[in-house]
Amino acid sequence: MATRAFLAVISSSPNRCFITPRMIKNQASAFSSSSSSSALQFQRHSRKPHRISRSFSSETNSSVLQPPDISSLAKTARISLTPAEIEEYEPKIRQVIDWFGQLQQVDVNSVEPAIRADMEGGNLREDAPETFENRDSIRASIPSFDEAYLKVPKVLNKE
Amino acid sequence: MCSFSIRKSPNSSFIFPKFAPLLVRHCLTLPSLVPILKPPRFRVVASLSGTSWVSQASKEKYGGWALIEDEAPLPHWKSKKKWRNVVITGVGSSLSSRPIVSAASSTIDAATVSPPQSQILSTRRSLLSGETTASEIAKSYLSRIRLTEPQLKCFLHISENVLKDAQEIDARIARGEELGPLAGVFIGVKDNICTEGMPSTAASRILEHYRPPFDATAVKKIKELGGIVVGKTNMDEFGMGSTTEASAFQVTANPWDLTRVPGGSSGGSAAAVAARQCMVSLGSDTGGSVRQPASFCGVVGLKPTYGRVSRFGLMAYASSLDVIGCFGSTVADAGMLLHAISGYDRFDSTSSKQDVPEFQSQFLSVDSFESKPLKGVKVGLIRETLEEGVDCGVRSATQEAASHLEALGCLVTEVSLPSFSLGLPAYYVIASSESSSNLSRYDGVRYGNQVMAEELNKLYECSRGEGFGGEVKMRILMGTYALSAGYYDAYYKRAQQVRTIIRKDFKAALDQNDILISPAAPSAAYKIGEKKDDPLAMYAGDIMTVNVNLAGLPAIVLPCGLVEGGPSGLPVGLQIIGAAFDEEKLLKVSHIFEQTLKVSPGKGGLEEGTLVVLPLDDLGGGRGTLGGRFSMSTSFVLVTA
Q: ipTM score here?
């Protein structure tokens, strides 16, 4: 599936296009207030009652925070879910995302993001096409094809 | 007791011990596994006395017996010459792959039991000396797999070519050709690592029956050096899990206790090495998936520096964290396997051009150690890993391990990593975000299972909906949420900033210390099903390991003790973390640690040198042998019906 396609869906979804820093702060508050039980579970294993997971419950405004809407996320991720699955996943995903909320209180001012561990640059090979010899084997894995083409059902672009 | 030494009086009559059927039941743990006892097959039980790999409590509980199975009929046993045709296959204590003792017991009742030996080196020796052939070893491993797989379920696929590959090695030996360093070494490969023409499914329905058209670079290198791929090992689907319960196909049992998980996600690879279904194996480690199962199964698990090993052919989960890692029953084996697969690969731009040093010089024999072989090595014990919430048995095993390092000459101090607890949420944000992007390739169009639909989007949705398991779907959805426009800065970017903080903390700690140590997991192996429905409880178990992936550092886990649980205790692993690309130091320290861990023999219920043969009817054909390398430190007595 094309990543580009689902990114397109995301950016056209109006309710999560813009979040101001202020809103994020409010989200954070909501996170910490609504996640006390999960925070506890986590604390069992990680001791340090972190500066982050305390004292942010005063100005909770849950109307600002959009909790994950499983159905629309599933649509974005192109995964069909049964109603029973939605019911099962929703509380679990919400619990984990609440727990993610503790990151909001970390002071990351002027900290550069690291896209991965230390990297030496310049290991890219020349961008030139190469022939892969074992083509028949690739073809053997394709569920449906016709000569040089992959066969798929009709493409209806709802977006 | 009705036993005698076969060596002393091989012609005496055999007597069936009254306790034997009971014993078999104990060792196999599950009542349904008790074999029907009838001739002419025989089950062999060896004395645990004199062995160090079982806790004193279990020795008392089981009268000091380990279970051994032999597929040879009794006449072989009557002949002294054939007595080595034995395979230890007992489930529970007897499956442990190497002597394990609590470092805690080292001061009391210490005795010298030979330290664990490299299987790669001893295989090479016995092949070159003609003591055995690769085909013989292959048959022995295959029969062992046949015997143990019904209970353990480590493998999703067994290669049809094992014997053929072994014969090829034998032919090379016969022709006097040079042998690769991994010649005749039987290797299990985690199912998310591509093997040409052999199923590679990442334990997911969406890739059921998929056979890749190419070998992963690591697999290609192993084959070039003579290694034989035994099969594909079970795992949590796409590596997402810590128990191997999230496999779409089967649940792997921990060889130490069949009711417990082997850890994960590389649970199949770890359990297979622990049960000696293969000599070494490949796993992958995104947040601890090699190290935590190594701890749970009592084997050595090595996670190299990010970039040390090519990821080409490793099915991507979280690309910025994924590494291929190695399992072995000794540090030397894990290190030699790592050496074989390391190095720059033009098919992976994140693989490093750093030189790969010859690790083998670090694996000196214990006889050549000085009195303080690690004199002056600075070791930092990570304070945050020993705070409450960590099982007290794990804590004390770690502290004892630190004392052992001190006894070897190390300078052990506590270090603090202030950002330690931030690693877990940062890790799960990064891993689920990257997985939601990486797993978008599984769309049912080019490979894998396709669910036909009337239009393309429906085809994607249904193929993915039916092909992915629950945990995978949830992580993709969480990742989709975290990467959503507007949320990206709040989650993914922030998690990457936290990664920078964690890297800095590790760097500071490693500037002051040569290595860092911590437990490998907050507890020993837990019960199957225990944490299945509580994602946060499961995620919390990764607290010891995820930071190392975020910092990209190399780390090794090796057995350091036992805690109570299961029929014979449960292993606990020590994690040793090194500076980037300094696997050499990591291997040196851990090899010396492993080889010098003192053992306490304890007293078994029977005299040392006891072996019992029980009739058994459920064994496959072929003769069990470990190529003459059967090295339990006991002699045997035969007792039979």
A: 0.76
